[in-house]
Amino acid sequence: MSDRLTMDLIVGGVTAIRLLVLAVTPTDLFFDEAQYWAWSRDFDWGYFSKPPLIAWIIGATTGLAGSDAAFWVRAPAPIFHGLTALILAGWIGQIHRPAAPWVAATYLAMPILAVGSWMISTDTIMAPFLAAALWSWWRSLETRKWQFAALAGGLAGVAMMAKYAGVYFWLAVAVSMLFSRLRPTPGALAAAGIACLVVIAPNLLWNAGNGLVTFAHTADNAQVGRDMAMNWPGLASFLVAQAVVIGPVFFVVWLGAMARRDLSEIETFLLAASVPVLLLVCVQAFIAKANANWAFAAYPAAAAFVGLRLSRLGRPRLFAIGLAVNLVPILAVTALIVWPDIAPKLTDRYTGRTALMTEILAQANGRPVVADERQILADLTYAARRDGAPPVFANGRWDVPRHWYDMVAPQPTDRDALLVSDRAALECAGIAIAPEATMRPVHGAYAGRAIHLYPLPAGCS
Q1: 156, 209, 215, 265: which sits with the fewest CB atoms below 10 Å from its CB?
Q2: What is residue 353's three-state secondary structure?
Q3: Nearest alpha-carbon partner for 303 in 335, 276, 271, 277
């Protein structure tokens, strides 16, 4: 069997299985996913917390499918990861052909992708464009052609239109320039920079016209400008999480290679495109906080490095051990996705959302629905728009928007509504308003909460 056929079978088989998992899972859209879907109903150059590409992809997919079901919202996830695997394998296969299926398998077997191929996220949408940008930049270094550099910059811009972490492409460029053979020409740098700027310019202009809201939200998430602290437990837990992201065996192969002196140029470049990202986010974890996925931009290059390294060294046994170790969490997570009742404490946040929102919308009986909380707003908006129910609005008026719903769906004051809130009491013009119903879910994402439904007269909030 040829290396190309092996690679295609690996990628096609894994992608098909992950699509099947999406087709049978009873889990609801997480509220972030529901919010991305809501964005996709109205294409724009930017949104409150993220750049626009994820919304465009979801909108295109659901539009072509003619359905807003959770399967179609999530369907791009396994497909985009399969595409990333093909790009990485195609790139490394040009350099060392036997490594192509090893690279594809390494990437697809990362435990993080068991989740990343189920839930749609900006990391997933960014991945193939970042991988293609790195490949194109490598080609520009090989050929000294500015056209490849321009293509790399443009692809990096597209990656940034998915998630601002696509900017790590430029970190890879900067670090690789420390090695004489990996230094580009000034013309290549200029071509890449101009192409990147052209691609991201619409989002920059959108932010400029909306008070830099996305940049401010991103900085707030990273706790930029707050007091720094030496967060040793946070750093330790982050590093443990990273070993789980790629798998412990591959994690050791990847980082352990930094001490080697026998690295090829491509291996050096792949380390330059991955390790600095991890180190930078480690600093973030140490001085403030960092979620496990914040370093995901490192892993396309890291997976390519591991697959290439083990192939070149002729270490099929170590490679098989790494895959086998990774298969354990992958199968465990997949089982939970398909049968969430196995461990409700782990999966409750992904169930019960649709059922509760359907009850709330039925209680509204045609009235507009108003809510305080972004999570409830996202779940309600998905259920309402999908089923043709009454409109959903964000409660209150704020000088600074708390989230996207404050920006696009502020509460109208000229009509009666149903307020969904966990407030224990509500007054309007000094008169107490009693809830007309209280939801107390015992299972699912809202289990243990008391969610009150208040009749909200016009003019009240």
Answers
A1: 209
A2: helix
A3: 271
